[in-house]
Design a protein that fits this description.
This protein has one domain: Aldolase class I (TIM Barrel, Alpha-Beta Barrel), CATH 3.20.20.70. The chain is 37% helix and 15% strand. It has 11 helices and 10 strands. An 8-stranded parallel beta barrel has the order 3-4-5-6-7-8-9-10, surrounded by 6 helices. A two-stranded antiparallel sheet has the order 1-2. The model has no long low-confidence stretch (mean pLDDT 96). It binds flavin mononucleotide.
Length: 318
């Protein structure tokens, strides 16, 4: 097995193990949240450049839930037309495409938000999933990482609620569990449920528990990134790495979590070269590697990696 070995997730065939992680392209989107020509051009370049899976950037379930003004929207049916143009690019180049579904949340105030407001946002997520399917995507990725709403709810240090949305692990996962339960009909062999989680929520042990819980809930694909920061220092909560681990600590979270679940795991952060990516896949440390900034620099990262692989090993990949 190598970086260019296909992988099937449900009925969808990924040509290789390289993923475009969600990347909000603020400079290509206006305040109206609509898909633009330059955004379509970007996804075309990545699809044409050989990516195995594309996860379209964070699309917001509510106008007041954006992380920045110029973020794409999915909060009304009027967005479906533009989003379907992105999905069509995936079909044309035979690259499965998920779209990330997001709400920025309330930071430290997540414990004080009225329960009815979370009920309302849950409804908005359900409607957003339906729109993603109508637009023709191959699935969705729930944004459950990086201090946004679902990450805030998952975290035992931030979510100090005492209602149905907080308390035990099960209650901190209630929002996700209910969302999955209410959208179950949408998911079949042609529609993938992905989840981007914090591998340190706040410790790796919490990340492992969350990942196992997600697998039990029927999630098809886990994407391990970072979780909420330390509330006092407002810094990422880093994990100590073994001395001989030659990659970023966020990649380590993914590698460790993969040992505890049977569904595919995507790892990410500071993976730049073909050799690094190949090492992680060939040693079965991860099922898929995401290349974010590397793809911004080189949308045809995979085509370039094939050449690098040939130079390094003498083996051709078509
Ligand atoms: C410009 C930019 C936009 C990003 N947008 C998102 C996003 O929409 N959703 C998300 O989960 N992560 C987002 N991220 C994080 C990336 O998906 C990725 O985890 C991060 O860039 C680390 O990977 P890299 O070192 O390969 O770039 C963004 C990162 C960058 C640099």
């Amino acid at each position: 097995m190598n970086l260019f070995t296909p992988l099937n997730i449900k009925n969808k065939k990924l040509k290789n193990r390289v993923v475009l992680p969600p990347l909000v392209r603020f400079s290509m989107v206006e305040k109206d949240g609509l898909v633009t020509e330059s955004l379509l051009e970007w996804y075309k370049d990545v699809a044409e450049g050989g990516a195995g899976l594309i996860i379209v950037e964070a699309s917001c379930v509510a106008e007041d839930g954006k992380l920045r003004d110029n973020q794409i929207g999915i909060w009304e049916d009027s967005f479906i037309e533009g989003l379907s143009k992105i999905a069509a690019i995936g079909k044309k180049y035979e690259v499965p495409m998920l779209i990330q579904i997001h709400h920025a949340g309330f930071k430290e105030k997540v414990a004080e938000v009225p329960e009815e407001l979370l009920d309302q946002i849950l409804n908005q997520f359900v409607e957003a999933f339906k729109r993603a399917k109508k637009a023709g995507f191959d699935g969705v990725e729930i944004h459950g990482a990086h201090t946004y709403l679902i990450s805030q709810l998952n975290s035992r240090i931030w979510n100090l609620r005492t209602d149905k949305y907080g308390g035990s692990l099960e209650k901190r996962m209630f929002f996700t569990e209910e969302l999955i339960r209410r959208t179950k009909k949408l998911f079949n062999d042609d529609f993938i449920l992905g989840y981007r989680m914090g591998g340190n929520e706040p410790e790796l042990e919490d990340g492992i528990k969350i990942a196992k819980y997600l697998e039990k809930l029927g999630v098809d694909l886990i994407h391990v990134s970072s979780g909420v920061p330390n509330p006092e220092k407002k810094q990422e909560i880093k994990i100590d790495l073994p001395d001989d681990f030659p990659f970023d600590w966020v990649v380590y979270l993914g590698v460790e979590i993969k040992k505890h679940v049977n569904i595919p795991v995507i790892g990410v952060r500071n993976i730049k070269t073909e050799e690094q990516a190949s090492f992680l896949i060939e040693n079965e440390m991860l099922d898929l590697v995401a290349i974010g900034r590397g793809m911004i620099a080189r949308p045809n990262w995979v085509e370039f990696a094939k050449k690098e692989y040939f130079k390094r090993t003498g083996k051709m990949v078509d």
